[in-house]
Amino acid sequence: EVKLVESGGGSVQAGGSLRLSCVASGFTYCTYDMSWYRQAPGKERKFISVIYADGGTYYDDSVKGRFTTSRASAENTVVLQMNSLKDEDTGMYYCKLEFRDCAGVWHGDDPYWGQGTQVTVSE
Prior knowledge:
The protein is mostly beta strands. It has no helices and eleven strands.
C-alpha cells in the first residue's frame, strides 16, 4: 500500500520559516515526481511546487523565491523549505506522488496523496 506522510507544519509569525517533509513508502519505482499543494479553509487545493524525477523544479508564482523543494538524503523523502512566510500561506499542505515503475507504467492518472500538515502564519 502506498503511503505518504507529511510533517513539519506548525504555527509561525509572518516572516518566519518552516520545513515540511513528505515520506513515501509502499511503492516500487524507477522515477517519481513529488508535488506540494495547499488548501486554505473554504478554498480549493492549490498547486505550490513540484520536483521532477530529473531534479527539475517548478513553483507557483506566489511562492517563487521564498519556497524551495528538494529531495532529502533519506529515501523517498521530499522537503519543502518555506521562508518569509506570509499569512496567505496558511493552510493544510499536502504532498502528491506520481511515479513510473520499472515496467514503464505511469502511476499518475490517479496520484497518491498524504493526509496533510497544517501551517498557520499569523501577522
